[in-house]
Amino acid sequence: MPPSAAPEAARSGPVAGLLLAAGTSSRMGANKLLFEVGGRSLLRSAALRAVEAGLAPLYVVLGHEAGQARRELDDIGCEIVLNRDYELGITASLTTGISALASHVPAVVVMLADMPCVDAPMIASLVARYRSTPAPLVISDYEGVNAPPVLYDRSLFAELRSLTGDSGCGRQVVARHRSEAEVLRWPAAALADIDVPEDFARVSGMK
Q: Looking at the predicted structure, is the pLDDT value of residue 29 above 60?
């Protein structure tokens, strides 16, 4: 059994953000997070949406080309977390980021930087649902597909830190606690992410 979820008083305080942005963009052939959509890099835009949604503090996990990526965030006021094992995949970024969270953080919203259709109101809705329920997690459902952003209560942090292998953004933890989760449903179009050049062309046309 996991430890108790954050008490009601803690749920009224700030919820942290954890933006995973360390990958190599191997299928794109270049660092996709530095590509611009709507006049901003994907990385900068994702961080600004997290801040607009009220996530605080915002932790950003960097790895591949971390120096260039960091410059996109210089004036945003986020906490940079370096994942030296970024080539091992997204689970390494998740566990590194969760391990870096301050001890007072009651919950965290895990986001991916390559999902430009996830907007600030969507992120804020996860936090609002968390504050109004005792659920240990709030998940996003895109017409039958579960994907980030996902909100995890601190009672699940130990499970997240212990993940290994290909667990994505904590899907093993989500599966174990699915019956306890609150679910927010979004249109499938909001799931659009950017992995290959065709994705970038499509999403650029939507913005």
A: no
User: Whose CA is closest to 90, among 148, 48, 34, 144?
Assistant: 148
Residues 34 and 175: their CA atoms lie apart, in Å, by: 32
> What are 90's two structure tokens?
């997204």
pLDDT of residue 17: 98
Give residue 144's region: left, alpha or beta (phi > 0; psi -120 to 50): left
Name the phi and psi angles at 80, rounded to 5. -90, 130
- pTM summary value: 0.89
Residues 205, 116: contact at Cβ < 8 Å? no
Closest CA to 108 of 145, 88, 136, 80: 136
Calpha distance 194→198 (Å, rounded): 8
Question: Is residue 186 within 8 Å of residue 142, measured between CB atoms?
Answer: yes
Domains and CATH numbers, the chain: 11-206 (3.90.550.10)
